[in-house]
Specification:
Blueprint lengths: L1 H31 L4 H15 L3 H6 L3 H4 L7 H11 L9 E6 L2 H13 L10 E8 L5 E11 L2 E5 L5 H26 L5 H10 L3 H12 L3 H8 L6
Antiparallel strand pairs: 1-2, 2-3, 3-4
Length: 234
């Protein structure tokens, strides 16, 4: 009798999990239904490439003029950008939109990127945005510019100038020093402060946690953010 009861509970649990999974799939599918067939195809392939951590599949979705920017003098810049793109794990219940860009906003953005040392090799026509929850208290918005060409969508972004690549490398050296220092400070973090900060992070109160660490240690909020990024809350 007891064995039968356990089996029934197990079956119910699987049914409930199946329902939840189905609901997530329905939400994602309904969201995709608001897009054109070509847009749906692009988004589906994009999400698959990201979740598979497959750079080759991601590059297929990028415009040739953007990929043609890559050479031996800036390869490290692009490697870093691609790694950042692939770091996400997009759940099934994401929401997505692809909107056409107004000429005025495109002109402003292109001018701004050129000033920063990241001129666009081709003019973007649309903006892709994918939103999802990373945890109960954390959400992510992936925003990418697209170009519609011959009925197909491709990702497009700015190509770094030589000066921009130099700045990027200097920034990376600085970030690496800061990362190592933050790791050292994290190793020194002990209870009761560690438990207090962990609880604040679990409650989604990141800023309060950063402020508390800064208040106790005298470190800057930027350092506090780097140190507390090492705390596991899941």
């Amino acid at each position: 009798m007891k064995k039968n009861k356990v089996i029934k509970i197990t079956v119910i649990a699987f049914i409930l999990l199946g329902c939840i999974s189905s609901i997530n799939n329905i939400l994602a599918n309904e969201n995709l239904n608001n897009l054109s067939k070509e847009q749906q195809g692009y988004v589906t392939r994009y999400v698959e490439a990201i979740n598979a951590d497959d750079l080759s599949k991601l590059k297929v979705l990028m415009h040739s003029s953007y990929l043609n920017c890559i050479n031996s003098t800036n390869q490290d810049y692009f490697d870093t950008m691609f790694q950042k793109s692939l770091k996400y794990d997009i759940p099934q219940d994401y929401t997505v939109s692809i909107e056409p860009l107004a000429d005025e906003s495109v002109a402003k953005e292109m001018a701004g990127f050129k000033q920063w040392g990241l001129p666009y090799p081709s003019r973007p026509t649309h903006q892709l945005q994918i939103d999802f929850n990373k945890s109960e208290y954390s959400s992510v918005a992936i925003v990418r510019k697209l170009i519609l060409e011959d009925g197909k969508y491709y990702e497009i972004s700015g190509c770094p100038t030589r000066e921009m690549v130099k700045k990027f490398r200097k920034m990376n050296i600085k970030k690496e020093k800061e990362r190592k220092r933050a790791e050292g400070l994290f190793r020194k973090l002990k209870d009761p402060l560690l438990s207090e900060l962990t609880q604040l992070l679990k409650e989604g109160r990141k800023i309060d946690a950063w402020k508390r660490y800064s208040e106790v240690t005298g470190e800057s909020l930027a350092t506090a953010k780097a140190v507390l990024s090492h705390i596991q809350t899941e």
